[in-house]
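Entry 14. Structure prediction run on the chain below.
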Amino acid sequence: MSNELKRDYKKHRYRVTFNKRPHADTKTYNFGRTRNIGLRVDYQCAEVSFEMTGLKSAEDLVTFNSKLFRDAYRKILFVHAVKMSEGLKVRKLIIDIDGVKSVFDEKNDANGHFPFMFSMIGDRDLQLDSSWEGLEDIIINTTKSNQDEDVRFAAVHAYLSAKNRVYAIDKFTNLWTAMNAYYNYCAGQYEKQLKADYGVTELKRSLKLAGSDRDALGLICWLLDSHFPMIGEEGKSAELKALWKNNYEVEEYLRTLPAEDIEKLYDAASAELRGEEIPDRFAALSNRAGQFGVKLMPFLLLQYAYNWRCRLLHGNRSTFLFMAYNDYELSVMHTINYFLERFLNDAIPKIFEDSYWDQEKQQMAIDYMRHIRMKGGKDVFQKNLDALIAAQSVK
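Output returned:
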């Protein structure tokens, strides 16, 4: 057989070190036909090692002429963020192929592309709850294509991206995207469970929840407080429109609220959900929320934030291109962003737990659907649910 027809079946050994060799335990995963890829991530350093028959050069790796290394690089940046609550700043790459080392840094990069992959997270402290560390194995063992199809990862990506935003409006855009993904996931879980319970693959319209921001957002309000905010059909009433139009007292209150008191406002709103009284200093805001049919937490976190989302993200009014330090809109954004950021910091990791969407949440979702589908005194939801039950009994 000629040399041209011979194939190289030798196993080539690759190790790529980010900054310095880490001391963390090795996690293994597979990518395509390459098995047992080793990944280690420690504080501001990481390493990926693997063996494969194909011989790649160091340049092949840094130009991503290797899907495996492109995927590994993403995983390292992602895992470092959730594990260390901080973005990884890549200062040096040491690529070892069969014992031959190549070093890349800002000085040794003729094309000026170092570090070759750029992170929207940055390298600042992300202040993530410790529960985010539990996402490490999930990230390592989930391909990018599967992440792209999983709305939970949409929540994670948007939330982490928000952490590196300087301007309040940019932070709000990313945080609301994360919230949007969060409530759509919950709505989807309700539908998934309903289909599983009754052995069907499709639901009638009155049983559906996913796909409607109004209804899915209302579900989160209901899960928090068993009250439905007036953002649906009620939102078309002249009374509610008047409430929103004359909502300047909320803006004025938030404008004069010291930044250090936003945390206290969140704590008070959370305590109210547990049955505690709202402090007198926040009573005016609480009373305003009551006019919209909800308590303070779902009002500021969801209903009020949704109103601002509609103002700013629908293109119906100009965005914040210029802003003075004491504009009321900036105070509003700071408050809304704090509520969204703190709530999602706790909520997002939980949706990756197998036990998250339990029977209690499913029953609350059914109660909520029954409430919002009531028309003219007729329980449309129950009527169609009974039809599902009857069809199930026939099988």
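The longest strand covers residues 34-42.
Filed with the rest of this week's runs.
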